[in-house]
Amino acid sequence: MEKTLDTKYTYTEKKDTRSGFGDGFLELGRKNKNVVGLCADLIGSLKMGAFQKEFPERFFQVGISEANMMGLAAGMTIGGKIPFTGTFANFSTGRVYDQIRQSIAYSEKNVKICASHAGLTLGEDGATHQILEDVGMMKMLPNMTVINPCDYNQTKAATMAIADHEGPVYLRFGRPSWPIFTPSDQKFEIGKAWKMIEGKDVSLFATGHLVWEAVVAEAMLREEGISVELINIHTIKPLDTAAVLASVAKTGCAVTAEEHQLNGGLGDSIAQTLIRNNPAPQEFVGVDDSFGESGKPVDLLEKYGLNAENIVKAVKKAISRK
Amino acid sequence: MEKHSTEQLKSICSQVRRDILRMVHACQSGHPGASLGCTEFFVALYFDQMKHNKNFNPDGIGEDLFFLSNGHISPVWYSVLSRSGYFDTKELATFRKINSRLQGHPATEEGLPGIRVASGSLGQGLSVAIGAALTKKMNGDKQTVYALMGDGEQQEGQIWEAAMCAPHHNVDNLIASIDVNGQQIDGPTKEIMNLRDLKAKWEAFGWEVIVTKNGNEITDVVQSLEKAKSLLGKGKPVLNLLHTDMGFGVDFMVGTHKWHGVAPNDEQLENALGQLEETLGDY
Ligand SMILES: Cc1ncc(C[n+]2csc(CCOP(=O)(O)OP(=O)(O)O)c2C)c(N)n1
Ligand SMILES: [Mg+2]
Question: What ipTM, to 2 d.p.?
């Protein structure tokens, strides 16, 4: 079905965003000698193996001890290293929240928390591993930057960009093979929203894997004569409020799409921005206060209401409320 | 519960191994390695050692309780639960598929009989087992609480918080086992994060420690669990170092971390099933 749609962005290849991280991390290692890696028994899953092989003296396997890893990373910044920690998103956040809060965020440590297997699209492992609350937890922490890129290329670019940013960063990516539809030579600007498609009827703000679903939704809506402005929010915090407000001032309504709980996600951040400055109807695509479950990524996105069809519905509803 | 002969237990093990392989093959995901390695342990617990009721009651008053901390080896648990009558074996075919009660990691949300708490995020199960054991004591319930952990899992700090706590509170109605297979995801435990002397560590924390030398020999497992039982009620919790081989029972899977979390393809499945007799009928 996607194939027959005239999407404004297209792809010839699919890859997992975690590989974008792994490839970016290796390149970064070659460019920046202060970059170090830590991993908690998930080197293969995080695609950190190539870096480990090339820079064994800058890489630390810490075993299954995520809390310890966060403390080690905080300590390594003292004296100028830039540690990148690697584990699944669940074990990068909820598991170690207080370690991050005290030793990293509050202490303003230059640690990059790199989190794979986020969201429902982790698939078969099920709800214990499918964290849908991580963005909320991380964005609540003062000093923390929160980034959720949308495909392999953007994840690679983001991985390289965060090393040059001083301060703690949460970088969220995933496991499934996903369309690569953004350019390989993109410049990644932290905190700068990317207007991917100009439109006038609705502002569609999407992050992570759902940016692709939004690209598909835009094409479906265009066929029905609805003009969508699609904005890629790769940086959830700090939010590019100027871009959000400028777009909604023009379109008069908003839809947000994310692979996360509605409580505490990107949608909340956008709603807060709008309500304080320019209240406008907003619809939310995300997980509505439930845990996930085992299954295939695409089936899960459908069951939990996170695919292009759901975005289309949300857009129509937002427009009808103007 | 009827007593099973050693031969009967062995034949159950063979069927459970077939179930494990067919389950992970059908969804092309999940964790066969330590599931195969812990088969004798689960069969010994559910078909010989534990007093339990297939008409599942979450509170388990007057029953022995089992907690799986290394939740990724759900296939062996699901197989043994269904083979002991908790639910229809046909349901094993739904493992890890959408709308199933057989979640990738054990969960209570879908109401699968036999599961009392979710696991999957490592390091948490022993604490829960200690809590349940304390409740049994408060309730005057004389039955035993069992728990299983992985050896890689010993790297989690919470394990050692629990280790310190159980002897302090005289939790002597608890038998915790560690699946000492020497493997974890990224490689052998020795290379990933050396555990060194687990026996000395647990003893230093105040546990009675026993060793099951061959956790893939059913008689050895039964004997150790009998011994563990005899040590209960004396003020100390019991820790069983259960030595197993990851992937036991399938020649090309045994003894390597490579099959920790990888499903066999069609050809590999056929080869593996050829090594394991179908004793109770495939689901
Ligand atoms: C807190 C946490 N961190 C990481 C993981 C990912 N993980 C799943 S199994 C595993 C290895 C566990 O090793 P071990 O306990 O020895 O089990 P085995 O590989 O022998 O089955 C890891 C790291 C997890 N499930 N939970
Ligand atoms: Mg192990």
Answer: 0.95
Please give the helix or strand (H or E) that residue B209 lies within, else none.
Answer: strand B208-212
Q: Which residue's CA is minimally distant from atom 19 of ligand 1?
A: B184
Using the predicted structure, report yes or no on whether residue A211 has a pLDDT greater than 80. yes
Ligand 1 site, residue B185, Cβ cutoff 6 A: yes
Q: Which residues of B touch A127 (CB under 8 A)?
A: 103, 105, 107, 109, 118
Q: What is the average per-residue pLDDT within B36-62? A: 98
Amino acid B3: pLDDT: 86
Asked whether the beta carbons of residue B192 and residue A127 sit closer than 8 angstroms, the reply is no
What distances in angstroms separate CA B267 from CA B17, B263, B272, one per listed residue? 17, 11, 9
Residues 6+ apart with CB under 8 A from A1: none
Count CB-CB contacts under 10 A for residue B51.
12
Does the beta-carbon distance from B193 to A303 stay under 8 Å? no
Flag whether residue B179 sits within 8 Å of chain A, measured between CB atoms.
no
State the CATH number of the domain containing residue B264: 3.40.50.970
What residues are paired with A204 via a beta bridge?
A: A230, A255
Closest-CA residue of A relative to B72 is A125
Q: Does residue A2 surpass a pLDDT of 60?
A: no
Nearest chain A residue to B121 by CA: give it. A128
Residue nearest to atom 15 of ligand 1 (CA): B150
By CB neighbour count within 10 A (0-12 exposed, 13-18 middle, 19+ buried), where does A196 fall? buried
The domain A194-320 is placed in CATH, from the list 2.60.120.10, 3.40.50.1010, 3.40.50.920, 3.40.50.740, at 3.40.50.920
pTM (two decimals):
0.97
pLDDT value of position A3: 55
Mean pLDDT, rounded, for A170-198: 98
Instruction: Give the model confidence (pLDDT) of A251-262 as tens digits.
Output: 999 999 999 999
Dihedral angle sign, alpha carbons of residues B152, B155, B159, B160: positive
Give the CATH number of domain A14-179: 3.40.50.970
The least confident of A1-10, A175-184, B63-72, B121-130 is A1-10
Same fold, A14-179 and A194-320: yes
Domain that holds residue B120: 6-273
pLDDT band at B1 (very low <50, low <70, confident <90, very high): low
Angle between helices A17-31 and A152-162 (to 10 degrees): 30
Q: What is the mean pLDDT of residues A224-240?
A: 98
Which of B20, B153, B243, when mutated, tests ligand 1's pocket best, judged by the most ligand atoms within 8 Å of its CB? B153
Taking CA atoms, what residue in B is nearest to A42? B186
